[in-house]
Write a sequence for this structure.
């Protein structure tokens, strides 16, 4: 399933992530998944939130550099080999992944994927 | 040692007489050969006949860096191309470098001026001398090189870079003198220490430092860490290159080769001449230059002319240390950098907001330039590789325009302070005391 992810460009300086978290908290927006990619002087914070439009609005108002990115949300059983099965399919059909992150709840693991080719990735996952 | 006793110790009256004669000849020459000066003089209603003594110089028009830019590339040359034997260039603010042309005579005078400097520092034909200024369009490398050869020293064209190899040569060849930027000298000291070499075992004893302003504190540090005597060498490519002024053994002000370069100190605001001892903008007239003679060129360097006789015996006037600039030019590792150059690059790239900041520092004795740039929201990428590519593109463009490496830092939109008045575009953290 394609979902919207928030990507926020942040400078590497103390307290920046916290400011994002607090801005969302004040508006009652829940973070469902979260990942941080970083370089020496900047990072990109990637977020899945409960209310995308509202989150974008409040973050922009607070002067954060927010982008909306399409990502794929996939699920697999939360057991050894669950992820490997999905990744096998990707590799078999030459689907490259820019980045991914995952979290698990009970018996299910949720995976957020950013492939180079969205359409192909979905087709492969549906097979 | 005094290289040219006749000129360096000439009586003040004789010198003024010589300068007056040379000025007369120069003004005639530029009036007839440089349309720029003829036009300026006609506008001011002066003719070469109005210039009879050196005091008449105040009647003449000033020349600015902007004039050189407006006459890019060779509009200020006063001789046909067949007489130009060398071209040097310094970085420009708007993409155009400043071009300087030299005739054979100009090069001969240049090497003579450098020989005067080196002799004043105690160097002779028995010295082994390495030139660690950049060789190329920059005047430092070739200027010092030919002057040292003219002195008769054994010249090592070490240039910049590969410092460990340089240290090896200093040790193995018994190099006794070195010319470089003062910051490179400190870097060299550090490299020697890192390589585990005892500086006292080296034969190095004289350092010739220029191309960037430095301080007495820095002199003390260089002298104690390299176990040498460190002397100042002043120059600028528009006038000639290194060798316009130089310290003597007294290390108290730099003597100007004033038979070739007539100095004035003016107020940058009123453009009136200031008396000795007062700080103002240094202005030079190239009394003997043939290729690109300049009348009253405004260097933008702030200093004062020193009063009193120098115990060394030279009568040529001395200038104090350069105490700053009357414009916003920065000197980074000997290279002139204007904030407007950075601005023109950033404004030329749609990915960036027109807000930026330059942070200049000295880390491990080397000047560093960091440029903070804001990425426009619509050009932000969700992928690190995309952002790093953008950062590299800006760094590469800045490097090609400034000819000095820049550390680009991408910052969040709206994070650089906007102010209604003069925004603080430059933060210079180097301590200049």
């Amino acid at each position: 399933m394609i979902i919207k992810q928030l990507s926020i460009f942040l400078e590497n300086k103390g307290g920046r992530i916290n400011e994002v978290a607090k801005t969302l908290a004040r508006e009652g927006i829940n973070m469902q998944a979260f990942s941080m990619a970083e370089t020496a002087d900047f990072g990109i914070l990637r977020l899945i939130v409960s209310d995308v439009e509202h989150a974008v609005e409040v973050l922009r108002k607070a002067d954060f550099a927010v982008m909306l990115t399409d990502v794929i949300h996939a699920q697999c059983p939360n057991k050894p080999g669950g992820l490997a099965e999905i990744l096998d399919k990707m590799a078999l059909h030459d689907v490259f992944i820019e980045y991914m992150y995952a979290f698990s709840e009970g018996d299910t693991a949720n995976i957020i994927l950013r492939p180079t080719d969205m359409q192909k990735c979905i087709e492969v996952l549906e097979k | 040692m005094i290289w040219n006793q006749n000129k360096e110790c000439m009586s003040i009256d004789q010198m003024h007489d010589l300068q007056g004669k040379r000025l007369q000849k120069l003004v005639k020459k530029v009036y007839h050969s440089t349309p720029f000066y003829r036009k300026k003089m006609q506008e001011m209603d002066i003719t070469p006949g109005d210039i009879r003594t050196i005091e008449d110089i105040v009647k003449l028009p000033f020349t600015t860096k902007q004039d050189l830019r407006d006459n890019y590339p060779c509009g200020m040359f006063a001789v046909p191309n067949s007489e130009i034997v060398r071209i040097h260039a310094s970085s420009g603010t708007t993409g155009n470098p400043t071009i300087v042309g030299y005739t054979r005579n100009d090069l001969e005078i240049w090497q003579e001026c450098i020989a005067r400097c080196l002799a004043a520092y105690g160097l002779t034909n028995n010295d082994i001398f390495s030139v660690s200024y950049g060789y190329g369009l920059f005047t430092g490398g070739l200027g010092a090189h030919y002057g040292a050869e003219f002195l008769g020293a054994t010249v090592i064209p070490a240039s910049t870079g590969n410092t460990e190899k340089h240290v090896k040569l200093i040790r193995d060849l018994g190099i006794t003198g070195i010319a470089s930027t003062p910051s490179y000298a400190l870097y060299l000291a550090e490299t020697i220490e890192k390589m585990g070499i005892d500086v006292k075992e080296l034969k190095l004893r004289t350092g010739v430092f220029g191309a960037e302003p430095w301080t007495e504190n820095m002199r003390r540090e260089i002298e104690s860490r390299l176990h040498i005597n460190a002397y100042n060498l002043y120059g600028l490519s528009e006038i000639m290159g290194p060798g316009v002024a130089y310290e003597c053994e007294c290390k108290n002000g730099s003597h100007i080769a004033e038979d070739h370069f007539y100095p004035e100190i003016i107020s940058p605001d009123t453009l009136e001449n200031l008396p000795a001892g007062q700080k103002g903008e240094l202005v030079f007239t190239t009394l003997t230059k043939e290729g690109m003679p300049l009348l009253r060129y405004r260097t933008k360097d702030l200093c004062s002319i020193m009063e009193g006789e120098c115990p060394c015996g030279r009568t040529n006037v001395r200038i104090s240390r350069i105490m700053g600039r009357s414009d916003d030019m920065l000197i980074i590792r000997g290279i002139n950098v204007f904030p407007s150059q950075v601005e023109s690059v950033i404004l030329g790239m749609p990915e960036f907001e027109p807000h930026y900041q330059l942070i200049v520092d000295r880390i491990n004795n080397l000047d560093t330039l960091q440029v903070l740039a804001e990425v426009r929201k619509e050009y932000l990428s969700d992928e690190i590789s995309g952002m790093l590519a953008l950062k590299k593109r800006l760094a590469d463009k800045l490097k090609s325009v400034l000819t000095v490496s820049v550390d680009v830092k991408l910052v969040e939109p709206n994070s650089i302070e906007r102010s209604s008045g003069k925004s603080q575009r430059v933060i210079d953290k180097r301590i200049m005391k």
